[in-house]
Specification:
The structure is a single chain. The chain is of the alpha/beta class. The protein folds into 2 domains: about 230 residues, Alpha-Beta Barrel (TIM Barrel); about 30 residues, no CATH class. It is about 40% helix and about 15% strand. An 8-stranded parallel beta barrel has the order 1-2-3-4-5-6-7-8, surrounded by 7 helices. Strand 3, helix 5 and strand 4 form a beta-alpha-beta unit. Helix 2 packs across helix 4 and helix 8 runs parallel beside helix 9. The longest helix is centred in the middle third of the chain and has 17 residues. The protein is globular. Bound molecules: 3-methyl-2-oxobutanoic acid. The site of 3-methyl-2-oxobutanoic acid (KIV) has 11 residues, from strand 6. The site of 3-methyl-2-oxobutanoic acid has 11 residues, from strand 6.
């Protein structure tokens, strides 16, 4: 089904709600640096997420837990300088919002002031309700994140699909409704059954953006390094690879090494 796309000059939290109402799907990708964000923005993405997945793809950590608020602000400010159209959402990293609402607000204010990002994203439902409330009261837009929440990986023990059992599915629906009621402008659902994700999208008025959550939701998000095929060892079922950049880059770099060794590079036209 194709839906007429409205030509937004700048995407806002309001535009996303409008897109849901009009049946226009929302496109979202991560970016963590200026050059990548420039390409992603110019290609017409609606939302750029400065995800704490930077901890994995940029810094090489096994989980998202080690990344700090200062590091997130550094990544986010580079992305903000590049984004002319997209809404820039910044993850609050692990340990900067869970302990109390005042700390959550301080962290969100630092992100907004020091990076220029447009909104923050927090993982969790009812248990972080007070933190979300406090941030929203300060006028900072909040995106929720439910399902597989990678900051809780040591509680889950694995990265497998969440909410397959009825009890967890019911809690997830309740949490999504709580986030909507609190005033979140959107919610990410990660790695849950497609049927459940569709049910959530149909039962709340705010946009639901899925990753590994099927196509019954209001939009999709992927980690840009994954969909470009740079992280070639990571191949979950939900991931569609649009390129094989790992191979293309390796070939180009090997060629460069050969050219330097053989003094083929630089040639006469490539020197002064
Ligand atoms: O950090 C991240 O990249 C995310 C997405 C996977 C939604 O939270």
């Amino acid at each position: 089904m194709s839906v007429a796309k409205k030509d937004y000059k700048r995407i806002t939290t309001k535009s996303l709600v409008e897109m849901k109402q009009n049946g226009e799907k929302i496109s979202m990708l991560t970016a963590y640096d200026y050059t990548m964000a420039k390409i992603v923005d110019a290609a017409g993405i609606d939302v750029i997420l400065v995800g704490d997945s930077a901890s994995n793809v940029m810094a090489g950590h096994e989980t998202t837990l080690p990344i700090t608020l200062d590091q997130m602000i550094y990544h986010a400010s580079s992305v903000v300088r590049a984004a002319e159209r997209a809404l820039v959402v910044v993850d609050l990293p692990f340990g900067t919002y869970q302990s109390d609402p005042k700390e959550a607000l301080r962290s969100a204010i630092r992100v907004m002031k020091e990076s220029g990002g447009h909104a923050v994203k927090l993982e969790g439902g009812k248990e972080i309700k007070e933190s979300i409330k406090r941030i929203l009261q300060a006028g900072i837009p909040v995106m929720g994140h439910l399902g597989l929440t990678p900051q809780s990986i040591y509680k889950f023990g694995t990265y497998t699909v969440r909410a397959k059992e009825e009890e967890e599915a019911e809690k997830l629906i309740e949490d999504a409704k709580t986030l909507e009621k609190l005033g979140c402008f959107a919610v990410v659902l990660e790695k849950i059954p497609a049927k459940l994700a569709k049910k959530v999208a149909e039962s709340i008025s705010i946009p639901v953006i899925g990753i590994g959550a099927g196509n019954g939701v209001d939009g999709q998000v992927l980690v840009v390094h994954d969909m470009l095929g740079m992280t070639h060892e990571f191949h979950p079922r939900f991931l569609r690879r649009y390129m094989n950049l790992y191979e293309d880059m390796s070939t180009a770099i090997s060629q460069y090494v050969d050219d330097v060794k053989s003094v083929d590079f630089p040639n006469e036209n490539e020197q002064y």
